[in-house]
Design goal:
Blueprint: H1 13-25, E1 41-42, E2 48-49
Antiparallel strand pairs: 1-2
Bound molecules: zinc ion (ZN) (2 copies).
Length: about 90
């Protein structure tokens, strides 16, 4: 064929974030938070339940998620990876 549009470059998440950042801020390198991080959780039956699933696909049990450590307990702001203090309220990360 040779006329297919190459979509592979759109699978690069950092490229997409960078593109969003340029739109939102007018400059490169700004990283908007476009989705909340939800960690996978292990079910009692041993199945790893992906972060976007609420129930175990193997046994149907509800996924028990503890509050994520990436979220500020005071104001609910999401921490960036290396943040020690909350950028919104100044609370220390737990
Ligand atoms: Zn299960
Ligand atoms: Zn906070």
């Amino acid at each position: 064929m040779g006329s297919n549009i190459d979509l592979r470059k759109y699978q690069d998440v950092s490229a997409i974030e960078d593109a969003f950042g340029k739109i939102l801020s007018g400059k490169s390198g700004y990283k908007p938070i476009i989705e909340r991080r939800v960690d996978p959780v292990k079910c009692e039956c041993g199945t790893i339940i992906p972060g976007d699933k609420k129930f175990c696909p193997t046994c149907g049990k509800k996924a028990e998620r503890k509050p994520t450590s990436t979220k500020c307990v005071k104001c609910g702001n999401f921490f960036e990876e290396n943040d020690v203090f909350c950028g919104e309220c100044g609370a220390k990360r737990e």
